[in-house]
Amino acid sequence: MARNGVPVIDLQGGDGVAEEIVNACEEWGIFRIINHGVPPELLTEMKAVAAALFDLPEEIKRRTLSSEGGKGYLTFNPSSPYLEGFSIDEVSSPGDFCDRLDATPHQREVICKYIKVLRDLAGILGRKLMEGFGLAGDLFDGWNCQMRFNKYHFSPESVGSCGVFLHSDPSFLTILHDDEDVSGLQVVNKHTGELTPVDPVPGTIAVNMGDIAKAWSNGRFCNVKHQVWCLEPKTRYSTVLFVLGPNDKKVEAPPELVDSDHPRLYVPIDIKDYRNVRSAKRLHTGGTLELFSTAAQG
């Protein structure tokens, strides 16, 4: 089942789901899932909590500012002039984030419950990816994750403008609950190079592959390029879980994905090193991977 070309996969569809997911990762780098196990009321509550946090006074929100790019409170900038964001950089211990914002007990409960459910979902997806390649194991066991809440301040003046510039994610996998009322997500079709809208489908969650997924799959997965475009003057919210990578080892393609027809394309990648290089080189659409290719290493 698909809408606008992007696959929609029933996560509880029985035999063949793992293969469907791998195929979607290879052809599109993005897909939507239904029967994902995230209660609809929790999705609604999380959106309401995020909206309330964004409504806090500026001086309180800035308590979560970080000196590291892409972390903490994300303020407006020239490349994303309509985007405001928060990130929980240690999802295993969100207490500091909640403390800094004076979150209520209810808000803390919703945030913690949401993180747990999405991490559980990430675990399921990781096992399905392994299964789809005929491998066993829990791919994302012990991996670091980051939670992000986004608010797009779209107005009549911003219609026809870019909310987030074209990029691929530096992570392995992104789990996205986009705004069911406001569209704007667009992805690049890897075959045609054209932008394809990924319109909201109520009750679904989107999953997309990042740069690290392409490296791990030995080039098989598409690290999909995407952007958010302002199509209408409505505030847009989204919540995102980034599955970044392991803290204590480098990421590389399993030996089962390397053979004479598929020689190893990338050297083992340290996640922090990769993000630092990508930021320093300002290569935001997947070009950083070429710096970690076996060909580039000589």
From TrEMBL:
Keywords: Iron, Metal-binding, Oxidoreductase. It comes from the Eukaryota. The keyword Hydrolase does not apply. The keyword Oxidoreductase applies. Residues 143-245 form the Fe2OG dioxygenase domain. Transmembrane segments: none annotated. GO terms for molecular function: metal ion binding; oxidoreductase activity, acting on paired donors, with incorporation or reduction of molecular oxygen. Belongs to the iron/ascorbate-dependent oxidoreductase family. This is Fe2OG dioxygenase domain-containing protein. It comes from Mikania micrantha.
